Amino acid sequence: MSCDAHKLAVTRRFLDWADVDLIRELTALLDRDRDVVVVDLGAGSGTTAGAVWAERSQRIRITTYDIDPTNLHWSGVFMSNIGAAIDEAWQGHLKDSTEAAADWGDESIDLLMLDTSHTYEQTVAELAAWLPKVRRDGWVWCHDYRGDYPGVTQAIDDLVGAGDIETWKVEGLGWSGNRPRMTQPEAA
User: Fold this and answer.
1) E-only strand ranges, 67-182
2) 142/115 Cα distance (integer angstroms)
3) What is the CATH T-level fold of the domain 4-178, as seen in this structure?
4) The pTM of the whole model exceeds 0.90
5) Which of 1-10, 43-52, 92-101, 144-153 has the lowest mean pLDDT?
6) pLDDT average, residue stretch 127-151
7) Residue 29 CA to chain centroid, in angstroms?
8) Distances from the Cα of 171 to the Cαs of 23, 72, 146, 186, in angstroms?
9) Who contacts 62 (Cβ-Cβ below 8 Å, separation ≥6)?
10) What does the pLDDT look like over 6-39, one tens digit per residue?
């Protein structure tokens, strides 16, 4: 099924069709019986936030962070054009992605999406700052896991190897997974 995010992905070439599909699939997994929170690191042209909105436009709040005001502007224009109420359903903030994590409580985010600098060091720093903010039943999506950014791939693989995150699916250029669920202590 095609949506405005698919169309933007084709024209801007930041994400591909499969990336949009995977984001929509993750969004569909979020609890429909309560309000949910999505944090989008890296505004780009708004494709990631738009993919979320295409799947779910009710009981959702999308917050995008970027260090480039032009990216935030165009992301806001796109979200407004597809019907997201700016400042209600979508907010954009000019702020460093790792510093922004301090604005959120632990386990307060349902879906975290990363698409920023594509370096190993930045990806590790973002995930270290943000993973505690993701609910145990929440999701993480990271762009450019496949492709020309080995630092992103290595950062994700290191965290998977350490047991900090688990892989769910790899589609298009994106990786998706979640924090391992906490295990219950065995009865004595």
Assistant:
1) 90-94, 109-114, 134-142, 166-171, 174-178
2) 6
3) Rossmann fold (3.40.50)
4) yes
5) 1-10
6) 94
7) 14
8) 10, 26, 9, 37
9) 38, 39, 40, 49, 52, 53, 79, 84, 89, 90, 91
10) 555 556 556 778 898 999 999 999 999 999 999 9
Q: Mean pLDDT over all residues of the chain?
A: 90
Dihedral (Cα; 12, 14, 17, 19), 10-degree rounding: -150
Alpha-carbon span 15 to 13, nearest angstrom: 6
For the chain, the domains span 4-178
